[in-house]
Write a structure and sequence with these properties.
Blueprint (H helix, E strand, L loop, with lengths): L3 E4 L10 H11 L5 H10 L2 E4 L2 E4 L2 E4 L2 E2 L13 H8 L7 E6 L5 E5 L8 E5 L5 E5 L2 H7 L8
């Protein structure tokens, strides 16, 4: 299913630069998946449609893909800002890239692999729930919420 990208943080898309990705990778000490960089470069601060994902026995939804660039006034929606909130509360190796309407974070999980991070949900209680084994798998599994499991 093709993903449409809807406005969320601003009326105009703001493209992320390769230098912004390099800075984020340097700060986190990881290499981000190429597909993520391609998607986030064009759609940071936007909402995917469909945006529902399965987690555990239920579903959740992405409200926004966090920004790679720390734009003034948008720190609450930046990947680095979200990381600073999570870092004291979660194990090392978890890096946020999207947020849910309930203030939970969808994150890369580098704890088991530096080459192919899994995707997890971190709840407001700081519980960690697996979602997908890769960013590509995560994107391919997004749905409208109308399917039966």
């Amino acid at each position: 299913m093709a993903i449409r990208w809807l406005k969320y943080l601003s009326d105009e898309p703001r493209l992320a630069t390769p230098q912004e990705f390099e800075q984020l990778e340097h700060q986190w000490g990881v290499t981000l998946p190429e597909e993520y960089k391609r998607v986030a470069a064009a759609h940071q601060g936007m909402t995917p449609e469909p945006g529902v994902f399965d987690v555990g026995r239920g579903t959740n939804v992405i409200s926004v893909f966090l920004t790679v660039s720390g734009e003034t006034g948008q720190d609450d929606y930046s990947a680095m800002g979200a990381f600073e909130v999570l870092e004291p509360h979660v194990p090392e190796g978890l890096y946020p890239f999207a947020e849910t309407p309930g203030g939970e974070y969808v994150c890369f999980d580098y704890r088991e692999s530096q080459r192919q991070p899994g995707i997890v949900l971190i709840t407001v209680e700081m519980d960690i729930h697996p979602i997908a084994s890769s960013f590509s798998e995560f994107l391919n599994a997004l749905h409208s919420g109308n399917r039966r499991t």
